[in-house]
Write a structure and sequence with these properties.
- The protein is 34% helix and 14% strand.
- It is elongated.
- The longest helix has 31 residues.
- A hairpin with a 5-residue loop joins β12 and β13.
- α3 runs antiparallel to α4 and α3 packs parallel to α6.
- It is α+β, with helices and mostly antiparallel strands.
Length: 350
């Protein structure tokens, strides 16, 4: 059936004509305008506004407390402490407390800012026409005026409780990051300057684990020693032996060129650090005829008959010498600690 056979009253009417929009005079894309502003309870009731202010301030204050809790948890909980927390199961107490407190600190700042914006800041919608990219003096003046209006409408100057607690929360949160810098590594303190050697500590042969006696060290021999009381199964054995390992050699006293080395020796027996002063490799290659020791890592060479000074290679300074003597039992003992840090140079060396 064609349209000519359909009764006129049943034919569809043009959409534009039906709505009266496309009739040659109307605009189908006319701006409907902004909806009428509906005031919030905080706009008409100052007590409600004060309640919102206190709620925002409470969130910022709790954020500050959470940041303090983050720092406290970092100090209180050891790294290896495991606790059971339902429903997470067995978790690290440190990681859980750090994540919980830092998450709360950031969440409460965000929640406080959102609640502030939704209840106290102006919610009047403003339409602004598009303009050219280049800012005219009028536009610049308008931007500054809008900024001033926004600052005024935010009530930041009038709501001092919110302002002060917000600044406090924002000021404390960065402390979490500062505390985390502690995990970059252990603080050296004076650990690099001190070893286990002390006055009266006997020299123990690292092969036999027996105290060394002068007669055990013959001319031309190389013996490795460690402090009395250091056990190989101790949890800090590696870190302690890396500073306290000794090379013991015996040189004819007349062949010792350095005066201090001869005074700190016992009958030609000298004790030098085994740790290379370049990058800390253990030294183990000894030339009997020249009294030179060679580091196998980068070939730094030291003259043990002349204060263990560097005669070749990248090492920056001589090997530290340990002053030794003999105790009442006839065993070799230390007469103190090294007078300078052992191993490679470090930033505190002075």
């Amino acid at each position: 059936m064609s349209s000519q056979q359909i009764p006129e009253e049943n034919l569809p009417v043009e959409q534009g004509t039906a709505h009266g929009a496309v009739d040659g005079a109307g605009d189908p894309f006319a701006d409907p305008g902004l909806p009428a502003h509906k005031p919030r309870i905080q706009d008409i009731d100052e007590r409600a506004a004060d309640r919102s202010e206190r709620a925002v301030a409470l969130m910022f204050t709790l954020s500050m407390l959470a940041t303090v809790g983050f720092i406290a948890a970092y100090v209180i909980f050891p790294v290896d402490k495991i606790v059971y927390i339902w429903p997470f199961g067995h978790v690290s107490a440190l990681n859980f407390s750090l994540g919980l407190t830092l998450g709360l600190a950031l969440f409460l700042i965000g929640a406080g800012a959102v609640h502030w914006a939704r209840t106290l800041m102006s919610d009047v919608e403003v339409a602004d026409d598009r303009h050219a990219i280049e800012a005219t003096p009028e536009v610049k003046a308008k931007v500054l005026a809008d900024f001033a209006d926004g600052a005024r409408e935010s009530a930041l100057g009038r709501r001092k409780l919110i302002r002060n607690t917000m600044f406090g929360a924002l000021a404390l949160v960065p402390l979490s990051g500062v505390v985390l810098l502690r995990d970059l590594g252990p603080l050296p303190e004076k650990k690099l300057r001190k070893t286990l050697w002390a006055k009266g500590k006997q020299l123990v042969n690292m092969n036999t684990m027996e105290p060394l006696r002068p007669e055990d060290v013959v001319v031309g021999s190389l013996t490795f020693a460690m402090p009395e009381g250091l056990e190989e199964d101790a949890h800090d054995f590696q870190s302690q032996i890396a500073k306290a390992a000794l090379m013991i050699i015996r040189i004819e006293p007349d062949n010792i060129k350095d005066k201090r080395e001869r005074e700190w020796a016992h009958e030609g027996i000298v004790a030098f650090s085994k740790i290379c002063t370049h990058v800390g490799c253990p030294i183990s290659l000894y030339e009997q005829q020249t009294h030179h020791v060679l580091c196998p890592c980068h070939q730094s060479t030291f003259d043990l008959s002349d204060g263990a000074r560097v005669i070749f290679g990248p090492a920056g300074h001589a090997l530290p010498q340990l002053r030794i003597g003999v105790n009442s039992e006839g065993n070799l003992e230390a007469l103190g600690d090294f007078e300078e840090p052992v191993g490679p140079a470090f930033w505190e060396r002075g």
